[in-house]
């Protein structure tokens, strides 16, 4: 459907601009008049060059949170859903998200439910989002559900940012260390080696001989090293693409000496917050557990939660099968059991999630404080060894000249 740019004023005289979809100019003008807009101009938007690059042009989580908050406020104020989507869609600055919102609006106009209209856009609105919206529509509390979704999305976004922040520093320093080492072996060591050869057959210290040979082998083996790195990355991707490979790599990550504790705590926080949000919004427990498993992002957690779901379907409690799987610490499972017995499972899950959010913060600080000195020692040791090996013959010659 064609897109029209418009400019007009409200009944109060405020100037507004935007875009809307319509079959023709007359239909666009009728839509504006129906929304009490006094038209100044309406013209069809010309399509420019639209190039989509893979991996570029995604929708940031922050933009989704802003959209949810604004939509909840508009619905609470009594505005029709189609009008809310049109206003938010035309004002959205991110082209990819704008296109999605206008498609959702068009689908709702055709008579589909809001939840069904969101389903085709899984990269932005996942199963959790769609099911909560469906529960909100059925219960007539869509604005409340959207506010809960915004809270959940914000907290989950902060959790992901904290994890990425903890990983970013050591990975960055490691990459820099590797690049510096490669540069020394590729350019600096050969320069010194050429200088030493020009001085004759003087015997070099053992550490210098080792570094010169390492440099010569590095330069000749560089294509094979690059090919090996590419092969390792591709192999890892293929392993993660398979069901078993994804499961076992997630299991290995959770057992890592430094980062494993952080990963486990983050998984607990996400599991409890997601399940608490779903249960508190009126989603049936079996459906909620299936959604939690699919949105966990961790195959170990997914398998454990699906096992627990099957046992719950047989009439058991949630806590008992989770205890069998040894998925989470005993304290977490005992708190879940208390929540089940008191009928306040969603409240208890939210408390656990808040507690483990703080635990993740502390784990991030702990990991960062442990990694900083370790990385400095490793980086300093590599560069120091190369420098000492290169300057050792010079010091030796200076001693001989002095003698």
Structure description:
- The protein is mostly helical and 403 residues long.
- The protein folds into two domains: 1-50; 155-403, Receptor-associated Protein (Up-down Bundle), CATH 1.20.81.30.
- 74% of the residues lie in helices and 5% in strands.
- It has 15 helices and three strands.
- It has helices at residues 25-34, 61-76, 81-91, 95-109, 114-118, 127-139, 142-197, 206-241, 243-254, 260-280, 285-294, 299-313, 319-325, 330-342, 345-402, and strands at 3-9, 15-21, 38-44.
- The chain has a three-stranded antiparallel sheet with strand order 2-1-3.
- A hairpin with a 5-residue loop joins strand 1 and strand 2 (15-21).
- Helix 6 runs antiparallel to helix 7 and helix 13 runs antiparallel to helix 14 (330-342).
- The chain starts with a strand and ends with a helix.
- The relative contact order is 0.08.
- Mean pLDDT is 81; it is low at 48-57.
